[in-house]
Amino acid sequence: MTEQKQKEKVRIGRSNLVVGLTGPFGSGCGEMRKVLEVLGFHPFKISEDIRKELKGQEKLIVKGKPNWRKVLQDRGNEMRKESQDYWIKKVVARIDKEEIGNRKIVVDGFRNFQEVQEIRKIYPNFFLVAICAQKNERWQRVKNDYEGRYNEFERDDRRDRSEDYDWGQSVQKCVDDADYVYYNNENFLVYPQGKEEPNSDKIKRTLKNQADDFVSLMPGITDHRGPHPEEVQMAAAYAQSNSSKCKKRHVGAVITITQDSREFPISMGYNENPPHVPTCSELQICCKDEDMAAKLKARGKDICCPSCGTRQKDLSEPWTCSECSENLKECLYPSRNMELCTAIHAEERAILSLGGRIVKGGRLYATTFPCFQCARLILDAGIGKVVYVEAYPMKETTEFLEKNGVEVVPFTGFTARAFFRVFKKVN
Ligand SMILES: [Zn+2]
Ligand SMILES: [Zn+2]
Ligand SMILES: [Zn+2]
Questions:
Q1: Domains of the chain
Q2: Residues contacting 169, CB < 8 A, separation 6+
Q3: What ipTM did this prediction achieve?
Q4: pLDDT band at 292 (very low <50, low <70, confident <90, very high)
Protein backbone atom coordinates (compact mmCIF):
# COMPACT_ATOMS: atom_id res chain seq x y z
CA MET A 1 0.00 0.00 0.00
CA THR A 2 1.33 3.45 -0.88
CA GLU A 3 1.90 5.96 1.89
CA GLN A 4 -0.95 8.12 0.63
CA LYS A 5 -3.37 5.21 0.60
CA GLN A 6 -2.20 4.26 4.09
CA LYS A 7 -3.06 7.79 5.26
CA GLU A 8 -6.41 7.58 3.52
CA LYS A 9 -7.11 4.34 5.36
CA VAL A 10 -6.33 5.99 8.68
CA ARG A 11 -8.54 8.95 7.77
CA ILE A 12 -11.63 6.98 6.77
CA GLY A 13 -10.99 4.36 9.42
CA ARG A 14 -11.88 0.75 8.96
CA SER A 15 -15.57 1.28 8.44
CA ASN A 16 -16.26 -1.87 6.40
CA LEU A 17 -18.99 -4.21 7.50
CA VAL A 18 -17.06 -7.26 8.66
CA VAL A 19 -18.73 -10.57 9.40
CA GLY A 20 -16.61 -13.03 11.36
CA LEU A 21 -17.59 -16.69 11.35
CA THR A 22 -17.16 -19.07 14.25
CA GLY A 23 -18.56 -22.42 15.35
CA PRO A 24 -17.53 -26.03 15.93
CA PHE A 25 -16.01 -27.62 12.85
CA GLY A 26 -18.52 -29.40 10.63
CA SER A 27 -21.21 -26.81 11.42
CA GLY A 28 -21.03 -25.20 7.99
CA CYS A 29 -18.98 -21.99 8.39
CA GLY A 30 -17.32 -22.72 5.05
CA GLU A 31 -20.69 -23.01 3.33
CA MET A 32 -21.84 -19.77 4.92
CA ARG A 33 -18.66 -18.07 3.72
CA LYS A 34 -19.46 -19.13 0.15
CA VAL A 35 -23.02 -17.83 0.47
CA LEU A 36 -21.72 -14.47 1.74
CA GLU A 37 -19.27 -14.34 -1.16
CA VAL A 38 -22.20 -14.54 -3.56
CA LEU A 39 -23.77 -11.67 -1.62
CA GLY A 40 -20.74 -9.49 -2.37
CA PHE A 41 -18.54 -10.14 0.67
CA HIS A 42 -14.79 -10.30 0.15
CA PRO A 43 -13.67 -13.60 1.74
CA PHE A 44 -10.72 -14.21 4.08
CA LYS A 45 -9.77 -17.27 6.10
CA ILE A 46 -7.65 -17.11 9.26
CA SER A 47 -6.34 -20.63 8.66
CA GLU A 48 -4.86 -19.56 5.32
CA ASP A 49 -1.95 -17.87 7.11
CA ILE A 50 -1.43 -20.91 9.33
CA ARG A 51 -1.27 -23.10 6.23
CA LYS A 52 1.14 -20.66 4.57
CA GLU A 53 3.48 -20.84 7.55
CA LEU A 54 3.52 -24.62 7.40
CA LYS A 55 5.43 -24.50 4.13
CA GLY A 56 7.26 -27.73 3.53
CA GLN A 57 4.81 -29.60 5.74
CA GLU A 58 1.87 -29.45 3.32
CA LYS A 59 1.67 -33.23 3.24
CA LEU A 60 0.90 -33.31 6.96
CA ILE A 61 -2.17 -31.09 6.67
CA VAL A 62 -3.91 -32.84 3.81
CA LYS A 63 -7.41 -33.77 4.98
CA GLY A 64 -7.64 -37.43 5.83
CA LYS A 65 -4.02 -37.68 7.02
CA PRO A 66 -3.75 -38.74 10.67
CA ASN A 67 -3.51 -35.65 12.91
CA TRP A 68 -3.91 -33.17 10.03
CA ARG A 69 -6.06 -30.83 12.11
CA LYS A 70 -3.84 -31.22 15.16
CA VAL A 71 -0.87 -29.87 13.16
CA LEU A 72 -2.91 -26.75 12.35
CA GLN A 73 -4.18 -26.43 15.93
CA ASP A 74 -0.67 -26.75 17.36
CA ARG A 75 0.76 -24.14 15.03
CA GLY A 76 -2.13 -21.77 15.71
CA ASN A 77 -1.57 -22.05 19.46
CA GLU A 78 2.21 -21.86 19.23
CA MET A 79 2.22 -18.46 17.53
CA ARG A 80 -0.63 -17.07 19.64
CA LYS A 81 1.33 -18.03 22.74
CA GLU A 82 4.19 -15.81 21.55
CA SER A 83 1.92 -12.98 20.54
CA GLN A 84 -1.82 -13.05 21.18
CA ASP A 85 -2.77 -11.05 18.06
CA TYR A 86 -0.31 -12.82 15.74
CA TRP A 87 -2.92 -14.27 13.34
CA ILE A 88 -5.23 -11.27 13.55
CA LYS A 89 -2.40 -8.96 12.47
CA LYS A 90 -1.74 -11.30 9.55
CA VAL A 91 -5.31 -11.33 8.31
CA VAL A 92 -5.73 -7.57 8.76
CA ALA A 93 -2.53 -7.03 6.78
CA ARG A 94 -3.94 -9.16 3.98
CA ILE A 95 -7.20 -7.19 4.01
CA ASP A 96 -5.26 -3.90 3.82
CA LYS A 97 -3.12 -5.18 0.98
CA GLU A 98 -6.11 -6.06 -1.16
CA GLU A 99 -7.41 -2.49 -1.14
CA ILE A 100 -11.04 -3.49 -1.13
CA GLY A 101 -12.36 -0.03 -0.33
CA ASN A 102 -15.72 -0.05 1.37
CA ARG A 103 -16.65 -3.58 0.36
CA LYS A 104 -18.10 -5.98 2.86
CA ILE A 105 -15.72 -8.55 4.30
CA VAL A 106 -16.17 -12.04 5.69
CA VAL A 107 -13.43 -13.53 7.88
CA ASP A 108 -13.87 -17.24 8.43
CA GLY A 109 -12.42 -19.37 11.21
CA PHE A 110 -12.47 -17.57 14.58
CA ARG A 111 -11.47 -20.17 17.16
CA ASN A 112 -9.93 -17.97 19.86
CA PHE A 113 -11.85 -15.59 22.10
CA GLN A 114 -9.04 -13.02 22.40
CA GLU A 115 -8.82 -12.77 18.61
CA VAL A 116 -12.50 -11.85 18.48
CA GLN A 117 -11.85 -9.05 20.99
CA GLU A 118 -8.88 -7.85 18.92
CA ILE A 119 -10.79 -7.59 15.65
CA ARG A 120 -13.72 -5.88 17.38
CA LYS A 121 -11.28 -3.08 18.26
CA ILE A 122 -9.95 -2.80 14.70
CA TYR A 123 -13.29 -2.93 12.90
CA PRO A 124 -16.07 -1.13 14.80
CA ASN A 125 -18.54 -2.58 12.29
CA PHE A 126 -17.71 -6.16 13.16
CA PHE A 127 -20.34 -8.83 13.79
CA LEU A 128 -19.55 -12.34 14.91
CA VAL A 129 -21.87 -14.94 13.40
CA ALA A 130 -21.88 -18.38 15.02
CA ILE A 131 -22.87 -21.39 12.95
CA CYS A 132 -23.63 -24.45 15.06
CA ALA A 133 -24.88 -27.98 14.52
CA GLN A 134 -25.36 -31.11 16.62
CA LYS A 135 -22.26 -33.19 17.17
CA ASN A 136 -23.49 -36.32 15.38
CA GLU A 137 -24.40 -34.25 12.35
CA ARG A 138 -21.03 -32.54 12.38
CA TRP A 139 -19.39 -35.93 12.50
CA GLN A 140 -21.35 -37.09 9.46
CA ARG A 141 -20.15 -34.04 7.58
CA VAL A 142 -16.46 -34.35 8.44
CA LYS A 143 -16.25 -38.15 8.62
CA ASN A 144 -14.39 -38.19 5.31
CA ASP A 145 -11.79 -35.67 6.47
CA TYR A 146 -10.98 -38.13 9.26
CA GLU A 147 -11.32 -41.26 7.15
CA GLY A 148 -13.69 -42.51 9.81
CA ARG A 149 -11.40 -41.95 12.83
CA TYR A 150 -14.02 -40.90 15.39
CA ASN A 151 -11.61 -40.73 18.35
CA GLU A 152 -9.43 -38.25 16.53
CA PHE A 153 -12.49 -36.16 15.66
CA GLU A 154 -13.53 -36.12 19.33
CA ARG A 155 -10.04 -35.23 20.53
CA ASP A 156 -9.77 -32.32 18.08
CA ASP A 157 -13.29 -31.22 18.98
CA ARG A 158 -12.47 -31.16 22.73
CA ARG A 159 -9.46 -28.94 22.06
CA ASP A 160 -11.43 -26.75 19.67
CA ARG A 161 -14.17 -26.25 22.26
CA SER A 162 -12.20 -24.96 25.23
CA GLU A 163 -8.53 -25.06 26.00
CA ASP A 164 -7.93 -23.52 29.40
CA TYR A 165 -5.46 -20.82 28.37
CA ASP A 166 -5.68 -17.51 26.51
CA TRP A 167 -3.71 -18.62 23.45
CA GLY A 168 -5.67 -21.87 23.10
CA GLN A 169 -8.80 -22.57 21.15
CA SER A 170 -12.07 -21.52 22.69
CA VAL A 171 -14.92 -21.92 20.22
CA GLN A 172 -17.47 -22.28 23.02
CA LYS A 173 -16.49 -18.87 24.39
CA CYS A 174 -16.56 -17.39 20.88
CA VAL A 175 -20.12 -18.65 20.36
CA ASP A 176 -21.09 -17.22 23.78
CA ASP A 177 -19.82 -13.88 22.48
CA ALA A 178 -21.54 -14.04 19.07
CA ASP A 179 -23.79 -11.29 17.70
CA TYR A 180 -25.87 -13.70 15.67
CA VAL A 181 -26.39 -17.43 16.07
CA TYR A 182 -27.63 -19.88 13.48
CA TYR A 183 -28.23 -23.59 13.95
CA ASN A 184 -27.47 -25.42 10.76
CA ASN A 185 -29.03 -28.74 11.73
CA GLU A 186 -30.62 -31.44 9.63
CA ASN A 187 -28.79 -30.18 6.57
CA PHE A 188 -26.35 -32.69 5.23
CA LEU A 189 -24.15 -30.86 2.80
CA VAL A 190 -22.16 -33.83 1.58
CA TYR A 191 -22.51 -37.55 1.55
CA PRO A 192 -19.89 -39.40 3.58
CA GLN A 193 -18.30 -40.23 0.21
CA GLY A 194 -17.83 -36.53 -0.40
CA LYS A 195 -20.46 -36.22 -3.12
CA GLU A 196 -22.96 -33.40 -3.04
CA GLU A 197 -26.35 -34.34 -1.75
CA PRO A 198 -29.15 -34.03 -4.33
CA ASN A 199 -31.01 -31.39 -2.32
CA SER A 200 -27.91 -29.30 -1.67
CA ASP A 201 -29.62 -26.50 -3.60
CA LYS A 202 -32.28 -26.40 -0.94
CA ILE A 203 -29.62 -26.27 1.77
CA LYS A 204 -27.84 -23.41 0.05
CA ARG A 205 -31.17 -21.62 -0.18
CA THR A 206 -31.71 -22.07 3.56
CA LEU A 207 -28.26 -20.68 4.29
CA LYS A 208 -28.86 -17.80 1.90
CA ASN A 209 -32.18 -16.95 3.56
CA GLN A 210 -30.38 -16.89 6.89
CA ALA A 211 -27.62 -14.67 5.49
CA ASP A 212 -30.21 -12.33 3.95
CA ASP A 213 -31.76 -12.02 7.40
CA PHE A 214 -28.66 -10.83 9.23
CA VAL A 215 -26.86 -9.02 6.39
CA SER A 216 -29.79 -6.70 5.74
CA LEU A 217 -30.02 -5.70 9.42
CA MET A 218 -26.33 -5.30 10.19
CA PRO A 219 -25.78 -1.88 8.61
CA GLY A 220 -28.32 -0.57 11.13
CA ILE A 221 -30.28 1.46 8.58
CA THR A 222 -32.90 -0.95 7.32
CA ASP A 223 -35.95 -1.99 9.24
CA HIS A 224 -36.98 -5.00 7.21
CA ARG A 225 -38.05 -6.67 10.41
CA GLY A 226 -38.28 -6.02 14.12
CA PRO A 227 -36.95 -8.45 16.71
CA HIS A 228 -38.61 -11.87 16.94
CA PRO A 229 -40.23 -12.57 20.33
CA GLU A 230 -37.48 -15.13 20.94
CA GLU A 231 -34.79 -12.51 20.36
CA VAL A 232 -36.46 -10.22 22.90
CA GLN A 233 -36.69 -12.89 25.61
CA MET A 234 -33.18 -14.17 24.93
CA ALA A 235 -31.84 -10.61 25.17
CA ALA A 236 -33.37 -10.44 28.66
CA ALA A 237 -31.68 -13.73 29.55
CA TYR A 238 -28.33 -12.36 28.34
CA ALA A 239 -28.86 -9.22 30.43
CA GLN A 240 -29.40 -11.44 33.49
CA SER A 241 -26.19 -13.35 32.80
CA ASN A 242 -24.25 -10.11 33.25
CA SER A 243 -24.96 -10.18 37.00
CA SER A 244 -23.06 -13.43 37.48
CA LYS A 245 -19.64 -13.29 39.13
CA CYS A 246 -18.76 -16.86 38.14
CA LYS A 247 -15.23 -17.25 36.84
CA LYS A 248 -16.16 -19.92 34.32
CA ARG A 249 -19.34 -18.89 32.58
CA HIS A 250 -22.09 -16.32 32.91
CA VAL A 251 -25.54 -17.77 32.35
CA GLY A 252 -28.95 -16.15 32.23
CA ALA A 253 -32.44 -17.65 32.07
CA VAL A 254 -35.94 -16.29 31.56
CA ILE A 255 -39.27 -18.10 31.99
CA THR A 256 -42.25 -16.86 30.02
CA ILE A 257 -45.92 -17.70 29.71
CA THR A 258 -48.14 -17.02 26.73
CA GLN A 259 -51.63 -15.60 27.13
CA ASP A 260 -53.84 -14.75 24.20
CA SER A 261 -50.81 -15.26 21.92
CA ARG A 262 -48.76 -12.68 23.83
CA GLU A 263 -45.63 -13.79 25.60
CA PHE A 264 -44.79 -12.41 29.07
CA PRO A 265 -41.71 -13.02 31.21
CA ILE A 266 -42.64 -14.14 34.72
CA SER A 267 -39.32 -15.16 36.22
CA MET A 268 -35.60 -14.92 35.57
CA GLY A 269 -32.24 -15.72 37.06
CA TYR A 270 -28.49 -15.99 36.66
CA ASN A 271 -25.91 -18.45 37.94
CA GLU A 272 -24.48 -17.46 41.30
CA ASN A 273 -23.53 -18.97 44.65
CA PRO A 274 -26.25 -18.82 47.30
CA PRO A 275 -26.44 -15.55 49.27
CA HIS A 276 -23.80 -15.34 52.05
CA VAL A 277 -21.54 -17.72 50.10
CA PRO A 278 -18.73 -15.70 48.49
CA THR A 279 -18.77 -15.59 44.67
CA CYS A 280 -16.07 -17.31 42.55
CA SER A 281 -14.64 -13.88 41.77
CA GLU A 282 -14.34 -13.06 45.47
CA LEU A 283 -12.81 -16.46 46.17
CA GLN A 284 -10.55 -16.11 43.12
CA ILE A 285 -11.21 -19.76 42.29
CA CYS A 286 -13.82 -21.99 40.75
CA CYS A 287 -14.35 -24.76 43.31
CA LYS A 288 -15.06 -27.52 40.82
CA ASP A 289 -12.03 -26.54 38.76
CA GLU A 290 -9.74 -26.48 41.80
CA ASP A 291 -10.99 -29.92 42.73
CA MET A 292 -10.30 -31.27 39.23
CA ALA A 293 -6.81 -29.79 39.26
CA ALA A 294 -6.10 -31.17 42.75
CA LYS A 295 -7.23 -34.65 41.72
CA LEU A 296 -5.13 -34.56 38.55
CA LYS A 297 -2.15 -33.36 40.58
CA ALA A 298 -2.64 -36.10 43.17
CA ARG A 299 -2.67 -38.77 40.48
CA GLY A 300 0.48 -37.19 39.07
CA LYS A 301 2.59 -39.42 36.85
CA ASP A 302 0.00 -42.14 37.15
CA ILE A 303 -2.13 -40.50 34.49
CA CYS A 304 -2.21 -42.02 31.04
CA CYS A 305 -3.78 -40.00 28.24
CA PRO A 306 -7.12 -41.68 27.39
CA SER A 307 -6.61 -40.72 23.73
CA CYS A 308 -3.09 -41.92 22.94
CA GLY A 309 -2.16 -43.90 26.05
CA THR A 310 1.00 -41.91 26.77
CA ARG A 311 2.01 -41.81 30.44
CA GLN A 312 2.31 -38.15 31.47
CA LYS A 313 5.59 -36.97 32.95
CA ASP A 314 5.38 -33.44 34.25
CA LEU A 315 1.69 -32.94 34.52
CA SER A 316 0.58 -29.41 35.38
CA GLU A 317 -1.53 -26.56 34.01
CA PRO A 318 -2.90 -26.41 31.36
CA TRP A 319 -3.31 -30.20 31.53
CA THR A 320 -2.62 -31.11 27.93
CA CYS A 321 -1.19 -34.46 26.85
CA SER A 322 2.52 -34.14 26.13
CA GLU A 323 2.16 -36.42 23.12
CA CYS A 324 -1.16 -35.74 21.38
CA SER A 325 -2.18 -32.39 22.98
CA GLU A 326 -5.41 -33.94 24.26
CA ASN A 327 -7.35 -31.63 26.59
CA LEU A 328 -6.99 -33.92 29.63
CA LYS A 329 -9.37 -32.02 31.90
CA GLU A 330 -12.17 -32.21 29.33
CA CYS A 331 -11.33 -35.80 28.53
CA LEU A 332 -11.08 -37.17 32.09
CA TYR A 333 -13.94 -35.03 33.40
CA PRO A 334 -16.49 -34.94 30.58
CA SER A 335 -19.14 -33.53 32.93
CA ARG A 336 -16.58 -31.00 34.19
CA ASN A 337 -17.19 -31.83 37.86
CA MET A 338 -20.64 -30.24 37.67
CA GLU A 339 -21.76 -32.14 40.78
CA LEU A 340 -19.40 -29.92 42.80
CA CYS A 341 -20.64 -26.65 41.34
CA THR A 342 -21.51 -24.38 44.28
CA ALA A 343 -23.74 -22.07 42.27
CA ILE A 344 -27.48 -22.07 41.93
CA HIS A 345 -27.83 -22.33 38.17
CA ALA A 346 -29.65 -19.65 36.19
CA GLU A 347 -32.48 -22.04 35.25
CA GLU A 348 -32.65 -23.27 38.85
CA ARG A 349 -32.92 -19.72 40.18
CA ALA A 350 -35.63 -18.80 37.67
CA ILE A 351 -37.61 -21.92 38.63
CA LEU A 352 -37.10 -21.36 42.39
CA SER A 353 -38.45 -17.85 41.95
CA LEU A 354 -41.70 -19.30 40.62
CA GLY A 355 -42.37 -20.27 44.25
CA GLY A 356 -43.81 -23.66 43.39
CA ARG A 357 -46.03 -22.39 40.61
CA ILE A 358 -46.55 -24.86 37.77
CA VAL A 359 -46.31 -23.10 34.43
CA LYS A 360 -47.98 -25.50 32.02
CA GLY A 361 -46.85 -24.59 28.53
CA GLY A 362 -44.31 -22.09 29.83
CA ARG A 363 -41.04 -21.48 28.01
CA LEU A 364 -37.54 -21.28 29.32
CA TYR A 365 -34.85 -19.26 27.55
CA ALA A 366 -31.26 -19.99 28.53
CA THR A 367 -28.01 -18.50 27.27
CA THR A 368 -26.31 -21.91 27.59
CA PHE A 369 -27.61 -25.47 27.55
CA PRO A 370 -29.36 -26.63 30.75
CA CYS A 371 -27.47 -29.28 32.71
CA PHE A 372 -29.06 -32.63 33.50
CA GLN A 373 -29.95 -31.59 37.07
CA CYS A 374 -31.77 -28.51 35.83
CA ALA A 375 -33.64 -30.62 33.27
CA ARG A 376 -35.40 -32.39 36.16
CA LEU A 377 -36.51 -29.04 37.57
CA ILE A 378 -37.69 -27.91 34.13
CA LEU A 379 -39.94 -30.96 33.95
CA ASP A 380 -41.10 -30.43 37.52
CA ALA A 381 -42.16 -26.85 36.75
CA GLY A 382 -44.27 -27.96 33.79
CA ILE A 383 -42.23 -26.00 31.25
CA GLY A 384 -43.08 -27.08 27.71
CA LYS A 385 -40.29 -25.57 25.65
CA VAL A 386 -36.61 -24.83 26.15
CA VAL A 387 -34.80 -22.37 23.86
CA TYR A 388 -31.02 -22.35 24.27
CA VAL A 389 -27.77 -20.96 22.86
CA GLU A 390 -24.98 -23.50 23.01
CA ALA A 391 -22.40 -24.82 20.60
CA TYR A 392 -22.08 -28.11 22.50
CA PRO A 393 -25.50 -29.20 23.82
CA MET A 394 -25.57 -32.43 25.82
CA LYS A 395 -27.31 -35.21 23.94
CA GLU A 396 -28.44 -37.04 27.09
CA THR A 397 -30.20 -33.98 28.48
CA THR A 398 -31.94 -33.26 25.17
CA GLU A 399 -33.17 -36.85 25.01
CA PHE A 400 -34.39 -36.81 28.62
CA LEU A 401 -36.37 -33.60 28.06
CA GLU A 402 -37.78 -34.60 24.67
CA LYS A 403 -38.76 -38.07 25.86
CA ASN A 404 -40.84 -36.38 28.54
CA GLY A 405 -42.63 -33.99 26.24
CA VAL A 406 -40.45 -30.87 26.39
CA GLU A 407 -39.62 -29.25 23.08
CA VAL A 408 -35.90 -28.41 22.93
CA VAL A 409 -35.03 -25.75 20.37
CA PRO A 410 -31.69 -24.12 19.57
CA PHE A 411 -31.94 -20.34 19.28
CA THR A 412 -31.44 -18.61 15.95
CA GLY A 413 -31.21 -14.84 15.70
CA PHE A 414 -29.46 -11.76 17.08
CA THR A 415 -28.12 -11.97 20.62
CA ALA A 416 -28.18 -9.19 23.21
CA ARG A 417 -24.71 -8.11 22.07
CA ALA A 418 -26.14 -6.86 18.77
CA PHE A 419 -29.74 -6.20 19.77
CA PHE A 420 -29.70 -2.41 19.96
CA ARG A 421 -27.22 -2.08 17.12
CA VAL A 422 -29.59 -3.69 14.65
CA PHE A 423 -33.10 -3.09 15.97
CA LYS A 424 -34.52 0.38 16.06
CA LYS A 425 -35.95 1.58 19.32
CA VAL A 426 -39.71 1.87 19.27
CA ASN A 427 -40.94 5.26 20.42
ZN1 LIG B 1 -18.27 -20.22 39.25
ZN1 LIG C 1 -2.41 -38.14 24.35
ZN1 LIG D 1 -28.06 -26.50 35.68
A1: 3-217 (3.40.50.300), 229-272+344-410 (3.40.140.10), 286-339 (no CATH)
A2: 73, 76, 77, 111, 112, 159, 160, 161, 162, 163
A3: 0.89
A4: confident
